[in-house]
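Sequence in, structure out. Go.
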Amino acid sequence: MSSYFSDLAQQYIDGEWRPGTGSWDIIDFNPYDNEKLASVTIATVDEVDAAYRAAERAQKQWAATNPYARRAVFEKALRLVEEREAEIGDAIVAELGGTRLKAAFELHLAKEFLREAVHLALRPEGRIIPSPVDGKENRVYRVPVGVVGVISPFNFPFLLSLKSVAPALALGNGVVLKPHQNTPIVGGTLVAKLFEDAGLPGGLLNVVVTDIAEIGDAFIEHPVPKVISFTGSDAVGRHVATVCAAHFKRSVLELGGNSALVVLDDADVDYAVDAAVFSRFVHQGQVCMAANRVLVDRAVADEFTEKFVAKVAGLRTGDPSDPSTVIGPVINSSQADAIAGVVEQALAEGATALVRGTVRDNLVEPSVLTGLPADSALLRQEVFGPVAFLVTFDGEEEAVRLVNDTPYGLSGAVHTGDVERGVDFARRIDAGMFHVNDGTVHDEPIVPFGGEKHSGVGRLNGDSMLDAFTTQKWISVQHGRSGFPF
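Output:
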């Protein structure tokens, strides 16, 4: 596996694999055993420029290519993912500490999004719009924006890079991808290798492995990209949006969350427990849609709490390559320390630990906390790790108020014996996505994905990709003669 990583530990610019020319290396570690997987000499501002210029040069011809020919690349990429599924899964386990279950989940979604990209190449349609002027025909064309910059995160790097890269390419754009420093291979150069082998013309997709300490804002300030697609924290997203606005660029922002899973008094408690445990602890809780807060009606709180605590206590933490492991390592020691700090802060504020996990290197066992003061900041922020806050409430009105009492608005779920009661509840929540009698962690290729408030701006998936990665152009034709006042 180490040779697999070292082979991909380069920059990919203008169809060529080359080392970076920066003065230092990003070291790629396995977060479980701290094995060095690879080192990548970082890209400089000059290489970021070269990547964008290559995409700009290649894009014009690609946009003019018949969309039926373009879609063949994505059909081949899909076949390659299917053929290489085992080795990509191993890479997900090694580079980001994903469990076998998580790797399979990420690969399943990646294949679904590639299937959608095949169809997306044929999706742009023009319109003819009536004119109040005699003899005039108004044509509206759907055209690529040109070049898209993509910044992907560490938690689902293969999926979330593909999720923007594939649609942007399918719609006729060039792309420059900057993966997260902790996942430069799975989130970056592995994607480049996949499309190179699928026959994508050189220069259309470029990958720069670099760091803000080296390039500053050059990736988002550069004059070539017209759209920046960013997935990550709301703090960084705010900065990306600000810089984009100052340079008249469009930004698509998929940011953090503080989702709640709500258990009403008529819920199927056993089913709600299963949904809540998955929603909080999938991939160690390092998921923007994860259920930070589990809100339970007082009428069923005792039963739910007993069963929830028992299930969480039985989750196995350890080696992510072991198929029986449910909780693998978090991405790095800083993340582990931050999660431990959240638990300490909650206890200092008066919370009670129903389950308190230990921290060993990057392995953070699950914790379940209850009794946190209602005004605690912890209930309103994103906690990116295996810590669940249990909160009881009295009746739906209080539940709605508690769910909405956060700066975020990404996802959520409600459990009830009455589906329409659940839908009515969901409609009162300020979130981009909400699920009735299910978990909080969902993504589907053709359903608009995105959040409200601090959880982001814009939507991805399906027709939303057209809004994200194309623009509209009005061309009018005067078949007669216009009259002019002078």
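Check: The first strand starts at residue 11 and ends at 13. Residues 15 and 201 are 8 Å apart (CA to CA).
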